[in-house]
Write a structure and sequence with these properties.
With 145 residues, the protein is mainly α. Helices cover 80% and strands 0% of the residues. The protein is globular.
Length: 145
């Protein structure tokens, strides 16, 4: 039962990721089509995806009922920055060291980034949610010091 719930939460997290990508692409092309330079359009569109991710994952995926806090949002931004650095590094390694194709490397980097992002988001960012994993409570319940 518990592993089934974890699987559903992970699927929700992945679905939110797809929606974030759609928000990013839509904003990017709208902004680009009205003459905003690509790098500025990328900043705004990526930011839109991150904000969408925070709101949907907080409310729907991890079901956090407590009031939003700066600490929580700061942690969320840090996790996404870590994920960005990790995926960029994996892309570089896959392309330059392993010499995989761009598509294979992008899929591997995205998958690795998603796992790290999910783990940190669930255990460190949205700790108060019904679908989160609180490391401190887990240790108390298992008898681990």
């Amino acid at each position: 039962m518990e592993s089934n719930k974890a699987g559903i939460i992970f699927i929700k997290f992945g679905f939110v990721g797809l929606l974030n990508t759609a928000v990013d692409l839509l904003l990017f092309f709208i902004l680009s089509s009205v003459g905003i330079t690509y790098w500025l359009a990328q900043i705004f569109s990526y930011s839109g995806g991150v904000i969408n991710s925070y709101l949907l994952n907080r409310q729907w995926t991890f079901q956090v009922a407590e009031k939003k806090s700066r600490r929580e949002f700061s942690r969320f931004l840090l996790v996404n920055l870590i994920t960005l650095i990790l995926t960029a590094s994996l892309l570089k390694m896959g392309l330059q060291l392993v010499e995989w194709s761009l598509v294979t490397t992008k899929i591997a980097a995205t998958g690795g980034g998603m796992l790290v992002n999910y783990g940190l988001t669930k255990s460190w960012v949205f700790v108060g949610g019904r679908n989160s994993y609180n490391l401190k409570n887990s240790e108390k319940n298992s008898g681990t010091p």
